[in-house]
Specification:
With about 300 residues, the chain is mainly α. It contains 15 helices and no strands.
Length: about 300
């Protein structure tokens, strides 16, 4: 009897091992087929592969890829849900919270963004990237005072955090503190003289100060740097008309209108000037883009 139990028990165990091995192979195939599809921008195929793979095995790396594919498919709420599952498994992983904040920003859910940043600060309260995102969440909630405070701290921690300088300058301008905004713009111009965003900020500050000729000079510089800057044409046109250049002003306004029409046409055809990833400046070109599996 024991011999028979051993014989049939061993056979059953072998069958179970074979089943598990087959399942493992299927999982690996689906996972890496999904990765390849993601790399060549076959997003729907990637989504199918990752979804089926996760049904076979709850693997964090695959879930990370799945969240990336969902972002690229503009399924932001779905991506956020996957990130929540990731952070449950990796509660001390700062990079997941940063991506959650980015996705919440794209959804314009500034409460969720702030919550993600608060949890990130529990992991590292001195991280300039966290502070920068928290500032953006504050701006989304019209809390400019705290936004400026967060950006100031980020700059203190990293004096080369130029994006924090730029956002603080823009926020100071919006709050009406022109002198402080100008200090940030001047500092940025010393470091990034040909940066389009910095030049636009400086032009707007000069215009707010009433220095119209100086503002025009900076708008001209923006267009020298980027001849297709729709914002510069939109804002320079009325300014040129105020300064007496009626024809030049009309030409700028017409150019801005043409650019806006072309942008709308491109977007209607699915050739958007910026896709979802670019909004947060993340290309996700390599695997484990957020370091989820490289933490010590």
């Amino acid at each position: 009897m024991n011999f028979l139990k051993s014989l049939f028990g061993s056979k059953a165990e072998n069958e179970e091992e074979k089943r598990r091995e087959e399942e493992r192979k299927n999982f690996e195939t689906l996972k890496y087929d999904g990765v390849r599809a993601l790399q060549i921008n076959q997003i729907e195929q990637a989504l199918r592969c990752f979804s089926h793979a996760l049904q076979l095995h709850d693997d964090l790396e695959t879930r990370d890829y799945y969240s990336q594919a969902l972002i690229r498919n503009n399924d932001l709420s779905g991506a956020y849900a996957q990130l929540q599952k990731l952070v449950e498994a990796e509660p001390d992983n700062l990079q997941i919270y940063l991506r959650m904040a980015d996705v919440a920003y794209m959804m314009e859910d500034y409460v969720a963004m702030g919550n993600a940043c608060e949890k990130a600060m529990l992991v590292d309260s001195e991280n300039p990237q966290v502070l920068y995102r928290y500032a953006k969440a504050c701006i989304g909630r019209d809390d400019l005072t705290n936004a400026i405070a967060m950006l100031t701290k980020a700059i203190m921690l990293n004096p080369k955090a130029y994006e924090a300088y730029l956002l603080r300058g823009e926020t100071l301008l919006d709050s009406g503190d022109l002198d402080a905004a100008d200090e940030d713009a001047t500092h940025l111009l010393e470091q990034l003289a040909d940066n389009e965003d910095v030049l636009v900020l400086k032009a707007r500050i000069e215009q707010k100060k009433g220095n119209k000729a100086e503002a025009l000079t900076y708008y001209n510089k923006v267009i020298d740097v980027n001849p297709f800057s729709m914002v510069a044409f939109q804002e320079r046109g009325p300014l040129r008309m105020e300064l007496g250049d009626e024809q030049g002003g009309r030409e700028d306004i017409e150019m801005a209108e043409k650019m806006a029409a072309q942008l709308a046409a491109d977007q209607a055809q699915g050739v958007a000037d910026e896709d979802v990833e670019q909004k947060v400046k993340q290309a996700y070109k390599n695997v484990d883009a957020y370091g989820i599996f490289s933490n010590p």
